[in-house]
Structures are given as C-alpha cells and as structure tokens.
Design goal:
The chain contains eight helices and 14 strands. The chain is an alpha/beta fold. The protein binds zinc ion (ZN). The site of zinc ion has 6 residues, from loops.
Length: 291
Amino acid sequence: MGRYSIWVLEYACSDTHPVSATFYGAHNEGTLKLPFAYVLIKGPGIVAMVDVGYNNVGFAKDFAASIGVGGWHSPQEVLGECDVSPEDVTHVFLTHAHFDHAGGTALFPNARFFIQERELTGWVAAMALPRRFRTLTGGIDPGDVIRLVELAKDGRLTTVTGAQQDVVPGIDLHPAFDSHTPGSQYVVVRNSGGSSEDVFVLAGDLIYKYENLNDGNEADPAYVPVGLATGSQWNLVFACDEMLRKVGGNEKRIVPMHESRLAEFYPSRINQHGLQITEIALGDGEPSRVS
Ligand SMILES: [Zn+2]
C-alpha cells in the first residue's frame, strides 16, 4: 500500500489501428486493437489525472471516426467506475496535446492543468506555419490548443519547463523533448514518497505497448519507438531507456496507456460497455474497484 491509488481507464477503442503507427518500421503488418485510456490517481486531498481523452463533439468526433476510433464514453461514466466525478478532479498532468490526450479539458471544470511549455508553444508555432506543413499537426485539434491558452488566461494552466519534482507530493514530471511531440512528458509516481522501489511511470505516448520497450523479445530485448512521431526516433529510444531506469529496470512498472495487455499484469475488469478498468495500485484505505 502507498499514498496513491492508480487506475487506467479505457474510454474508447480502435479495433483497426495500423501496426506501423504503433511500432516504427513495422510496415505492411496490418492492424491491431488499440484501447484509448486515461489514468486516475487518487490520494489524500488529491484527485489527479494523466490526460483527459477527447470530447466526442465536432472536430474530435469526426477525426476519431476517420481513424477508426469509436465506443467513446464520457468521463462522467468512466470515472464513475471509481466513484469519482469530473468535478472532483483537482490536477491534470497532460503528457502531450494530441487530441486523444488533451481534448477533454473542458470536461474538468475544477482542475489545474500541467503541460510542458514547449508542448504548448511548439503546437502554436506549428499551427502558424504555411499550409504545406500541415502534416506536422496531424494529431492535433486546433481547438484544444486554443482551450489550453484560455486555461492559461483563466489562471488554470501551469507550464512546466523541464523536469519538476513533487508537483504534488510524490509525483514528478519529466520531459522527453522532440520525441513523440515537441514537449511530451511522462509522469512518475513515487508511491512511498521516497526513492524506494514503489515507483510507477505513466508513459503517455512515449510507448504505446510493452513491445515498444522489448520488441517482444524477453531474452534479447530491444527498444522499438512508436511509429507516430513529429520529433526524433532517437529521442524516443532514449526516453524508453530513461523511463526504464526510473523503475529499476522493471518494465511492468511503466504503464502504457494504449496497452490492451495490462490485464495480464494487473487486476482488472471489463464494464458493461466493454471498457477495461485496470487497477495499477491501491492506496492506504482505498477499496478495490475491480473486485
Ligand atoms: Zn500521441
């Protein structure tokens, strides 16, 4: 038991995601099932999330449909599985601004949001480029970037520059610049508060699946960067290595958000809508939401 409970909550799914988008260089290997999820972290006086999914209206709804993502359910329904409502959320750590991670900010009226400054300014700069550069912003809903700026105006956005320890007690943010996106970051939960082994890394899209860490080869593992990146594959590989060192080499303590195999390693259940709830950790006194 530790300070924080952690759940990975699926909110939508693609049954036909290209393998080549998941693993760099895996061309002509068809499609795979890719859950879309966010993470709930609950501790004393804190209800935090890592990413917020997208809001299933307008641009995001059409874009999701165009890439085969469906079965969306609202944060009200999804967080309700853990007896939390969107209004309860106090902190949101945005790993990056792709539509499926940062599109739902308007659904969390009481939260403070944290994002790497370079992620926000990078996308504003990319949006200002001539039309011919538009492939750079392929995963971005411009409305999400505008909402982030509005959150800044309203005093509800904190831009982080580099690593920041104890954003709330025991939770740290670490950047992976020019990797999946201009200012991606991952979240480290030190669940005993110190530097002991009770550490989890919430990886955002720096990995989609465990195979990004090991190439499916336990005997002779290799880092395989995700297929979708506007930054550098080199930086993605080194981000994998950095995250793995944060958890003492224990791959399973890195939590990918698009991994359909989490249930092999953590207690989980499927709700009535077919969405998976995975319990990564249970804090002191917190009842299980999967058993
Ligand atoms: Zn992404």
